[in-house]
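Loading example: each entry is read as two labelled lines plus one structure line.
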Amino acid sequence: MFKEKVAAAYQLIQDEICSGLEQADGHATFEEELWHREGGGGGRTRVIQSGAVIEKGGVNFSAVHGQLPEAVKRSFNVESDAFFATGVSIVIHPVNPFVPIIHMNIRYFEMDEQTRWFGGGIDLTPHYVIPTDARFFHHRLKQTCDEFDKAFYPKFKAIADDYFFIKHRQETRGVGGIFYDRLRPESTGHDFEHLFNFSLAVGRTFVPVYAELIDRNQEQHYTEQHKEWQYLRRGRYAEFNLVYDAGTKFGLETNGRIESILMSLPPMAKWPYDPQVVAGSEEEKTLALLKKGIDWV
Amino acid sequence: MFKEKVAAAYQLIQDEICSGLEQADGHATFEEELWHREGGGGGRTRVIQSGAVIEKGGVNFSAVHGQLPEAVKRSFNVESDAFFATGVSIVIHPVNPFVPIIHMNIRYFEMDEQTRWFGGGIDLTPHYVIPTDARFFHHRLKQTCDEFDKAFYPKFKAIADDYFFIKHRQETRGVGGIFYDRLRPESTGHDFEHLFNFSLAVGRTFVPVYAELIDRNQEQHYTEQHKEWQYLRRGRYAEFNLVYDAGTKFGLETNGRIESILMSLPPMAKWPYDPQVVAGSEEEKTLALLKKGIDWV
């Protein structure tokens, strides 16, 4: 069945990504935890901590099924309340402040033949925005998108800009990326096989892109002051995830597996009162680039 | 006018508390920032950082007025949309893990003669629950409450247990305290003057109680491991404030002054993956006491 094929392919993606990240780190390895969901299904949580490159990272696979809560069911307008959902979800917090935080998610959701879709995205959160890296990142995402539909990149890039926005700070979480949801033949003009392959291509874009960004920046010397800024930016990351992130909110409200949901939170963050950036500093330049609508390609 | 009398008294409470905390700290002093609200009114934010006892703390006074958003107005069933609100709000994050985090808030809200009330509370979040301290804390709150109404303490203690609860962790934020809202003659049988005096008494309970808790614990020797646990408990504090706290949510949604709203966030917090506590340890004993419904008096 289609959904089982998707889940199996996503497990392979998880394997590929974990081995790619272990290679990039060169020191730490993933620890795996298998879990089962009371309502049906389960997952493989894989966590890497205290590495040479990665301070804390998680690469989670899950495939769950069961009955949707009544309220969610009503909003979908479906007969049955049975659902199936599978996905791979990643957040990496690096040691070096010049290596960016990265997030990726690919997922498939199915209720019945009519009610099913792919969702996902990748976005980058540099502590210090390095324009050549941001351009490289977006360029590679565009390449992946363009192989499947020329309309995908501009559309999904705009959605990411809107989604990864910290409203109360009036700043984006990072330099964005792509974000998409409810991709179906009706909304895209492509069959499910094509959308499935797109989803896998997004998953396979992760390692080469992030390995390159690690390679470019991991040897960069950093000071205490750079670390302080990293802690502050991580605080913003925690704010976004706890206040706005739809996946986190859904997980918390539906009694999901807490440690897997909050795996995205930074290993360490700081909230000094009213931090100020020095005019002309790298920190100020970064803040100026945390805006929606920057064309990076 | 009554509301001006309340605001003036609250300013004095802020002054008393700041000077009491400076004395307890013995090293750091508050920095003040005056701010004005575009819609009307303003406040005095006072922050203390890097003290001998207090790592980061804020004692804010505000008195704002203006027009309520339409949605809020509807829920209140009032003719006019003019409102006035004044309050003092405090969160203190201490250096020593054996000194507890404390939060206090007293506030008065008024729309018209019929629509006005007092709200507030004090609650304690020890990183390590020390039962004698928790009992002392609750005993003193009960004393303050009992002077005004014997029914207050049990009622407000139960509300605090329910309110300061981290649902997704199934644990309370700390050992609770008292929390109350919409105190009016109709709901209490006391006139506004009596409720006002209760509010001031709550405000004046803060310094002697917290100074005592500092005095009892600030000389306690602590290790790196105790600090790690403190960072972890501070992470839970941040989770509560960003995910559940009504005041924080309201502030973020209504474009309040961000640095004042998020002043409550810890100076530094950690989120290690799936931390485990050792059986029989002080950390495990603390977790066992982070439950609703414990009778501390």
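Chain B touches chain A through 31 residues (CB under 8 Å).
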